[in-house]
Amino acid sequence: MRPALSIVVFTVLAGAGYGVWTWLGVLLALRAYPPGRNATLLPLALGFALVSAGLVVSLLHLGQPQRAWRALTQWRTSWLSREGLAALLTYLPALALAGLVRGDASFLPARLVGALLALGALATVTCTARIYTSLPPIPAWRDRRVLPLFHLHALLSGGLWFAGGAQFAVRSTAGVALAFAWLLAVVLLLAANLKRAYWRALDAAPAPADAGRASGLAALGTVRAFEGPATEASYVTREMAFALARRHAARLRRIAAVLAYSLPFLLLCVAAFDMTLRPWVLPPAAIACTLGLLVERWLFFAEAKHVAAAYFP
Amino acid sequence: MTALPPPPPKKLGLVIDLDTCVGCHACAVACKSWNDGGAFGPLPDADPLGAAPDGVWFNRVHTYEVTGLGTAGAASEQRKADDGGRPEIPTAATAHSRVPPALTIHFPRSCLHCETPACVPVCPTGASYKRAEDGIVLVDADKCIGCQLCAWACPYGAREFSAARGVMQKCTLCVDRIYDDSLAPQDRQPACVAACPTRARHFGDLGDPHSEVSKLVAERGGFAPLQELGYAPVNRYLPPRPHRDDGAHAAAETAEAPLDGEALPPLLRWLDRLLSR
User: Which residue ranges run through the membrane (chain A) (predicted)?
Assistant: First the structure.
């Protein structure tokens, strides 16, 4: 599949933003978050910026972006429609929270809205992932690891942005910050291992179809695509028969893994051992992870093979 | 609405005979020509007369080479001809006949107007829909936002995004022809069917077991590819006919055996005698 830059950037940025909102909402709901107006408003605004930037970039992928509102109508059948609706609905608790923060951790409305924010953010990430996992012609996306990976990557990158951004506003106790750093490390290890298993499964998977299956002529004998339908490329060959990345896949995977997992893990360990270093190591960890996920997401598209590519020589 | 309608009373579709298709692309050109000016057009091309023309075609003709004939599918012999899954093939039953070293098969590829197409429910806007009355799958270009998710959902590569119009386009089964009372009855069929010089394309109701197309499918073992993905395509392809003992085989035999003049029909017997003098 051709990796459209707009979708790659959208899923990574919005994923990080929803991750920030999820952590903030959960910690508020559980009363585990330190009190203070700015302590809440800063990560709330950070998530807002990431989510909104992602959503605006996603519009660039549309052929008729001015009609984007129509995408909110078919939520009964379409995961894309559900994603749009969930994304817009999640703004409601975010805005409500901005108005409700009183600097008191036990203020019940703020805790309830925090829980709604986390639920909306997770629901939106779920819808995003389900868009991909519900497409039968692309087996690489139907893998059962895809959905949890979207969640883990949102929680990982969002968690790093949350920890890196919030600590400027929060004089949180060292104990809470330390626990959060270890929690993020666990999420990171889960994501890294699941992604490695996904890549291994992808390497072992057979091609989704060959010319014989695609044409239905396999029962006749050995089928070979002899001549394509046109001398020029078409939408289908450009979109579904994208093969550029597979040549560099191994190197790109290493770059993605180092940036998204290895480097943030090292920096998290540094932060855990010396909490005073947090302002110096957590923002770089968030940036590295986001860059790594951009490469990871690019590969997620580029390495996925579509059945329709088998029609072509 | 992108929810699929209940199974339609009619299942309009195409039956394409891979035995007689000669790969002339007349269907593709006629389709482009009609639909460029039809109700679902235009189909604008970028650089149409230049070095790299680029634009939407609803119908594209592929060419495949099949080798190792009669070796791959002996197991499919028991399969019912009309199960729609795989083509009936020249197997052991016809093994004594002259099996050619390879076949060239031209394969026109367009929307198969599936009964349960994934391209329709994934549409976020309701622009993609399946008609409740005859099962034709269409795109409303005025509602389409060009997200291209439907094209990803189609395993047949039947949908093409028009960069020039910013919307998805696809085969309409010439819905703007087949119901047009102002056309002569013989012209109320898709442009590709009307244009085919070898009559390899047939149009009709595949939901009616007594229709001409359904009989053709039953008789010739019509199939649809990629049935295992569960889209339940309506269109059918007719496989190449098994190669029979043909003229070449008979000629080879007669070259060895002397001609028995007395066994010929009267006119040929007379000619044989005349020429033997």
Answer: 7-30, 42-63, 84-101, 113-133, 145-163, 169-192, 255-273, 279-300
